[in-house]
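Re: the request from the purification team.
They wanted to know what the chain is likely to look like in 3D before they choose a buffer screen. I agreed to run a prediction and write the result into the notebook, where they can find it.
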Amino acid sequence: MRCLLCARWSIPLVCGECDRLLAPTPKLHKIKHLDLISFYDYDTIETLLWAKYHAFGSFILQRLAKKAFRPFFSDLKLEREAALIPIDDRPNAFFSHTAILAKYGAGGFARPYFGCLRANSNVKYAGKTLAFRKKHPRRFICKNFPPEDAILIDDLCTTGTTLLEAEETLEKRGKKTLFAVTLAKAR
């Protein structure tokens, strides 16, 4: 097998050398009024994010979540319980990429709530423009969950449209979004 990043021969999907280079660097972004924390630039892990469409993608996402989400959330100090809400965590063929990420954020006052925020449309945003995204909203449906505070979880932020729509949906349910967390942010 070859490393997904450098194409050198490797037994793991990402060779040891490339894995060492995948050190997460938390960055704070603003999407309108919403704070977003991301750990990688999209260009750095683009190949790995595309793995979510393959059966082996769950292993890649688990590795990235262990490197980024687990340390971030274990250091996070919350005053009260907050729900980790994976965006549209419906399994796609083999697994749910956002559910994997939320699982690795669990701990302390942060607890994942699965199946609470699902898109009511089947539109795919990969490679689509901002105009397309605005014209084709996800139309989220939110099921109730106990905590008043929520932290949105997604794999990638491109334009922020999905995160803002998700936040608006939670707000209509009386929930407060503290911030959003993604693996990567596109430029």
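For the purification team: The chain has one domain: 24-185.
Please add any questions underneath this entry.
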